[in-house]
Amino acid sequence: MPLIEIKNLEKTFFEEDSSPTYVLRGINLTIDKGEFVAIVGPSGSGKSTLLQILGLLDRPTSGTYTFQGKSVDSYSDDEQAELRNRALGFIFQSFNLLPRVSVLENVKLPLAYSSISPKLWDAQAKKQITAVGLDHRMEHEPAQLSGGERQRVAIARALVINPEIIFADEPTGNLDSASGKNVMNILRRLHEEEGHTVVLITHDKSIARTADRIISIHDGEVVWDGRASDFTE
Amino acid sequence: MTKLYTIKTAYRSIRANKVRSGLTVLGIVIGITAIMLIVSIGQGAQNLILSEIQGMGAETIVVRPGREPKGASDFAQTLFANSLKERELEALRRTENIPDIVSVTPIVFISDSVTYGSAIERPTIYGWSAEFMASMMKVEVEKGTLFNESDIKQSAAVAVIGSKLAGNLFENEDPIGKSIRIKGKNFRVVAVLSPGGSSFFNTENMVIVPYTTAYTYLASAKFYNEIMIKVSSPEAVSRSVQDITMTLRELHDITDPDKDDFYIETQQGTIDQIGTILSVLTAFLSSVVAISLVVGGIGVMNVMLVSVTERTKEIGLRKALGARNRDILMQFLVEAILLTLFGGLIGIFLGILFGYLVSIGLSRSLNVEWVFSFPLQATLIAIGTSAAVGIIFGIYPARQASKKSPIEALRYE
């Protein structure tokens, strides 16, 4: 059973006084547990919209989305929120950490919306902060950290509930090359050593090659889907 | 999301913007302070008045002839009503009629002039009992001695006069032992009262004679203007009122209560009346001030709406990480409630502080026993009201926050 299966997925934006924008035009793909997939495409190709739909942050115009064998199309907002909390981890280009709140509190944020007992929150969050090598930054606020460190906090936050899948949207986009490399190494390690499923979105083909599999998108359609080593474009 | 975490998050966000939070709740602070102050002063005034009244005896019942004046036209009837005479006095004195009785004192008012030599004055003339004068009205003697029970029995022609009247009639002479004339009869002055007297009763310009003397020699129509009845305890007042009513109705063959030719007043009635007036006044003033709470609430709503817009990205992030709509709603609602509750608590503190200072100020400047009383009920109401303002004016911004879509919110810069 694939972890994610989408069929004929379409997303169209209807705006007043202009013709509809077809962002996704019939996407079909499956992602299995334990895969490391990169979705590449130029800006405007629809890759971000695809990620938002896969991440249950947005709903498709048509098509079906099956997660762990269950159709999530008919899920209510609350059910989707529960699934996001329990099974999905997000890493954003702009980190999206809460300002004026410590690293520890930031990493604990997903736990606050979970059914996990508050007694376990600290231990679980500290474990993930230590795993990304920031145990000496526990009580610092995001403003006191470098970009690379902030993204590592975001990774710790994404992992704190041990999700089924991690979505990383241009995780290196705001980082210098050394920090970006460091972040990619962590994602690579999470996949190889701990068997995490990672879906990476990027416009940078060299970063995409870090993954095992590449899905290339153009104008809302999949133009290439295969092993990263075979990706030539 | 756990309740504790929600409250912590809200508190943290309020603390992150200390100055703004402070200014936001200023309206609430001022409103609650004003309400607390009004209630506290109202309560103090009530306590002061009640203690003065109770000083005159909560176990006292007054029976008057006629009907309780309900309008201007009723006064004439009351003035000339003569239903309380010797016979009624005797009936009320019997313990088989009124078991809780301690003492019965008739009172006679005389409206006439008093002369000494060529000096003429028109003071208030009362026929009192010795006991009423000494232990109930607690008059204070400057010189001489008050008349006593045997003077009452003998209908002695003696008079106690107020200090101002003494000065007006006698100028520099010593009034004790001198004779004054009332209605052609000589009265020997036995005592002069101290200036002042109790705050409800000005004794400076009055003449007090034994009620027997007043009844026999001075009253043109033979009846008592009031009969003061003292009963054993304040608790006995209401059943004694029943007993008095029954006794007098029986004596006068009255079957229809509308045709009563007497009426009864108790201190409790006066206390109730004053209490009602003061509570109506306090409620009125408080409701005027409550308008300021509405204004304060609108201020809170305004700032909350700005805050929701500012934190659009935070809302999106929280939703992406699993917050449900109601988690976001609760977070912003609790923030608004916490904000107004803080304002309310500061207002309660300031209101009580100012109330206390006012009570000290009034005690000193008016020279009265103005006792500060902690307005517990108002405190509880103030806490409830400020929380309610938070709910009423926080719900709209909180709903706006909860309705934001996660991607729109995450994209917001």
TrEMBL record, chain A:
<feature type="domain" description="ABC transporter">
    <location>
        <begin position="4"/>
        <end position="233"/>
    </location>
</feature>
<dbReference type="InterPro" id="IPR017911">
    <property type="entry name" value="MacB-like_ATP-bd"/>
</dbReference>
<keyword id="KW-0547">Nucleotide-binding</keyword>
<keyword id="KW-0813">Transport</keyword>
<dbReference type="InterPro" id="IPR003439">
    <property type="entry name" value="ABC_transporter-like_ATP-bd"/>
</dbReference>
<dbReference type="InterPro" id="IPR017871">
    <property type="entry name" value="ABC_transporter-like_CS"/>
</dbReference>
<dbReference type="GO" id="GO:0005524">
    <property type="term" value="F:ATP binding"/>
</dbReference>
<keyword id="KW-0067">ATP-binding</keyword>
<dbReference type="Pfam" id="PF00005">
    <property type="entry name" value="ABC_tran"/>
</dbReference>
<dbReference type="GO" id="GO:0098796">
    <property type="term" value="C:membrane protein complex"/>
</dbReference>
<dbReference type="InterPro" id="IPR003593">
    <property type="entry name" value="AAA+_ATPase"/>
</dbReference>
<dbReference type="InterPro" id="IPR027417">
    <property type="entry name" value="P-loop_NTPase"/>
</dbReference>
<dbReference type="GO" id="GO:0016887">
    <property type="term" value="F:ATP hydrolysis activity"/>
</dbReference>
<protein>
    <submittedName>
        <fullName>Macrolide ABC transporter ATP-binding protein</fullName>
    </submittedName>
</protein>
<dbReference type="InterPro" id="IPR015854">
    <property type="entry name" value="ABC_transpr_LolD-like"/>
</dbReference>
<dbReference type="GO" id="GO:0022857">
    <property type="term" value="F:transmembrane transporter activity"/>
</dbReference>
<dbReference type="GO" id="GO:0005886">
    <property type="term" value="C:plasma membrane"/>
</dbReference>
TrEMBL record, chain B:
<feature type="transmembrane region" description="Helical">
    <location>
        <begin position="329"/>
        <end position="358"/>
    </location>
</feature>
<dbReference type="Pfam" id="PF02687">
    <property type="entry name" value="FtsX"/>
</dbReference>
<dbReference type="Pfam" id="PF12704">
    <property type="entry name" value="MacB_PCD"/>
</dbReference>
<keyword id="KW-0812">Transmembrane</keyword>
<feature type="transmembrane region" description="Helical">
    <location>
        <begin position="370"/>
        <end position="396"/>
    </location>
</feature>
<feature type="domain" description="MacB-like periplasmic core">
    <location>
        <begin position="21"/>
        <end position="244"/>
    </location>
</feature>
<keyword id="KW-1003">Cell membrane</keyword>
<keyword id="KW-0472">Membrane</keyword>
<keyword id="KW-1133">Transmembrane helix</keyword>
<feature type="transmembrane region" description="Helical">
    <location>
        <begin position="283"/>
        <end position="308"/>
    </location>
</feature>
<comment type="similarity">
    <text>Belongs to the ABC-4 integral membrane protein family.</text>
</comment>
<dbReference type="InterPro" id="IPR003838">
    <property type="entry name" value="ABC3_permease_C"/>
</dbReference>
<feature type="domain" description="ABC3 transporter permease C-terminal">
    <location>
        <begin position="287"/>
        <end position="406"/>
    </location>
</feature>
<dbReference type="InterPro" id="IPR025857">
    <property type="entry name" value="MacB_PCD"/>
</dbReference>
<protein>
    <recommendedName>
        <fullName>Multidrug ABC transporter substrate-binding protein</fullName>
    </recommendedName>
</protein>
<dbReference type="GO" id="GO:0022857">
    <property type="term" value="F:transmembrane transporter activity"/>
</dbReference>
<dbReference type="GO" id="GO:0005886">
    <property type="term" value="C:plasma membrane"/>
</dbReference>
<dbReference type="InterPro" id="IPR050250">
    <property type="entry name" value="Macrolide_Exporter_MacB"/>
</dbReference>
<feature type="transmembrane region" description="Helical">
    <location>
        <begin position="21"/>
        <end position="42"/>
    </location>
</feature>
